[in-house]
Write a structure and sequence with these properties.
Layout: E1 4-10, E2 15-21, H1 23-33, H2 37-55, E3 62-69, E4 75-81, E5 85-90, H3 107-111, E6 114-121, E7 128-133, H4 140-149, E8 155-163, E9 169-179, H5 185-197, H6 201-206, H7 211-219, E10 223-230, E11 232-233, H8 239-249, H9 251-260, E12 264-267, E13 274-277, H10 279-292
Parallel strand pairs: 5-11
Antiparallel strand pairs: 1-2, 1-10, 2-9, 3-4, 3-6, 4-5, 6-7, 8-9, 12-13
């Protein structure tokens, strides 16, 4: 079954809810980057949030998440759009630490301290930019803090990834609950109590719970599903995009590349696809640039 998420409204629209299963997506990321278990959990959790943040957009809008930190992972980057397409990478995929005090993967340890940046391309003259300090490195708590303090939307974010001994992904997914103005204090207290007793999101998915069933455990049957959207790993790199990138370097730099290397290999950060350009290809780019003069 394909990964998907649902968007829902609760309490007459006073709560927005998103829930998703991203097991296939996170498996694709793990295979593309050969991430080790703790890194898979960190990247997978961030990509799961990215998928849900993409679902908050529309049309051709997209969101880019960057977590820059002093931990051994150094940086996590996730890019997502309103169509359910998600991609991502980390600076250091081959990092691992001993299990934490709870006997779980030490995601906070590989992430460390730093800042969480969110850039949204909403088709306006300038993109929206928001940033907050990384408060725990556990990802879910960091985005809970981001939504509450950067976007002024009180939220609860839960994401989880279970990794098999062979490094494949056993279960991955998450949910975001956002409180809108007008929700009664009693309803908020009831929601907080339910959240505190809820099993981990990765365990629910591992036991076979669908996104709908996750929301049922939170809200019984009091939510209304607005949309169901497929989620998939997809990179928009291509020979044409790489060609344009090489063109942007200019004649002098490409000629220098020919003199020193005789060929070029460009590797996409997001999917690790390799694009090869031999000496003749590079001479062709130079000729194209000379014709444009």
């Amino acid at each position: 079954m394909k990964d998907y998420l649902i968007k829902a409204l609760v309490f007459d629209g006073k709560v927005r809810a998103y829930a998703t299963n991203t097991t296939i997506l996170v498996n694709e990321l793990q295979k593309s980057h050969d991430t080790w278990p703790t890194v898979s959990a960190a990247l997978g959790r961030t990509a799961t949030v990215g998928a849900m943040m993409g679902a908050m957009l529309k049309g051709d809008e997209r969101v880019t998440i960057q977590m820059k930190s002093d931990g051994p992972i150094e940086q996590i980057v996730v890019d997502a759009n309103a169509k359910g397409e998600v991609r991502g990478y980390v600076n250091n995929p081959h990092v691992d630490l001993p299990l934490n005090s709870k006997g779980k993967l030490d995601v906070a340890g590989v992430v460390g301290d730093g800042y969480l940046y969110v850039i949204k391309d909403l088709g306006l003259k300038e993109p929206y930019r928001g940033s907050v300090p990384i408060v725990s490195g556990e990802i879910g708590e960091d985005f809970t803090y981001y939504f509450t303090y950067s976007e002024q939307t009180p939220s609860a974010v839960a994401v989880g990834v279970l990794v098999n001994p062979d490094h494949t992904i056993r279960a991955a997914g998450g949910f975001i609950i956002q409180v809108m103005p007008g929700l009664e204090e009693e309803q908020i207290a009831e929601l907080e109590e339910t959240l505190s007793k809820l099993p981990t999101v990765s365990s629910m998915i591992d036991q076979g719970d669908s996104p709908e069933q996750i929301l049922e455990k939170l809200f019984k049957n009091e939510f209304k599903v607005l949309e169901r959207q497929e989620i998939q790993f997809k990179c928009n790199c291509s020979h044409e995009r790489i060609y344009q990138m090489l063109v942007s370097l200019g004649i002098e730099e490409i000629e220098d590349m020919i003199a020193k290397e005789e060929n070029a290999e460009v590797v996409c950060h997001f999917c690790n696809t390799k694009y090869q350009y031999n000496k003749e290809d590079l001479h062709g780019i130079v000729q194209d640039l000379q014709k444009e003069k």
